[in-house]
């Protein structure tokens, strides 16, 4: 079975409404269609890389390429796990966590996107909470960091609701103009104080060596 060699396909995170897991290629096609249908309004750009500026077909292909690339370049000391977020069996978007030298640093970075028609229903908070459960409980992370532009109000509100604190700013170039990016940081203690979402993680133990944790694979 595929999970014998790539156990991440057996990893699941479940919340009251959502399931986060790696998608099959057929499911990735559905996810790509979500991106093709729109991730934000045309007059906004909540991402540093303007991958949503292209045509619907280009947006769809970029989703597929990104998902395949992250699997191909995975290393235990430098990994990125872009979960597809499912609601009632259909994909809504992506919740990603990544780590570099995680076994030593115990720090993860989170990022996400959500289809435009699925926004405003609390899914963004719920899927981030799911990823934090994996990070802090499953992987025993000590801190999680995130970032959002100053005009990405929904993303910043999700971070504040979950207990993140300001961790400085950076000046970035977006569509040829300077924009301020806010860095945010969440410690294990802050997360525990704001932990509200009932979440279960299954299928993690066989994956631990892929994160640089547990018994090395043979």
From TrEMBL:
Keywords: Transferase. One of its GO terms (molecular function) is protein N-terminal-serine acetyltransferase activity. The keyword Transcription regulation does not apply. The keyword Transferase applies. GO terms for cellular component: cytoplasm. InterPro entries: Acyl_CoA_acyltransferase, GNAT_dom, Ribosomal_N-acetyltransferase. Residues 18-185 form the N-acetyltransferase domain. PROSITE patterns: GNAT (PS51186). This is GNAT family N-acetyltransferase. It comes from Streptomyces lonarensis.
